[in-house]
Amino acid sequence: MCRLLAAAATLFILLGAAPAALADNPKLRIETSKGPITVELYPDQAPITVENFLAYVDAGFYTGTVFHRVIKGFMIQGGGFDKEMRKKATRAPIKNEADNGLKNKRGTLAMARTMEPHSATAQFFINHKDNAFLDHKSKDRRGWGYAVFGKVTDGMEVVDEIAATPTGAFSKDGKDVFSKDVPKDGVVIEKITRLDG
Length: 197
Hints:
This protein is of the alpha+beta class. It has helices spanning 2-23, 47-58, 156-163; strands at 27-32, 35-41, 65-71, 75-82, 108-111, 124-127, 148-154, 167-172, 175-183, 188-194. A hairpin with a 2-residue loop joins β1 and β2.
């Protein structure tokens, strides 16, 4: 009986500690022209990525940027271009933390990058479905994957609405700046703010 009580007490302590640990994770609200999306970040698993993202947030970098690449059943990508589709200047690229064990599941946030694994700066995407092919497989150019650093905790219906937005090419001065996947009615990130002070 004593052993059972001790085990129950230990389990209670462990379970009681879990929400407190989760409460330390940064929470943010992404205000978009389609509605708000609340996200939680994972600094324990992706410390460099989270620090980088929060630095851009605190600097107001994302205010007035757009979701410039939207593919229903795949992901919505933003944070790099303004409403006129001008690319914003960023800081230096960061180390790819895709080997942190987190998976590109529906609703997770991950860093966008070029074909070079360690090239992510400010652009991020929200997975619209499970995208296992984006996960880390090996530490080479083909297998690095895309670093997950958070997840949507509220507002997936907004992500779904953005993903369903009609898309096409974006032309400027008679030239196609993007050949496809740009929302025809711009989806603006009005601002991203911390919810934890």
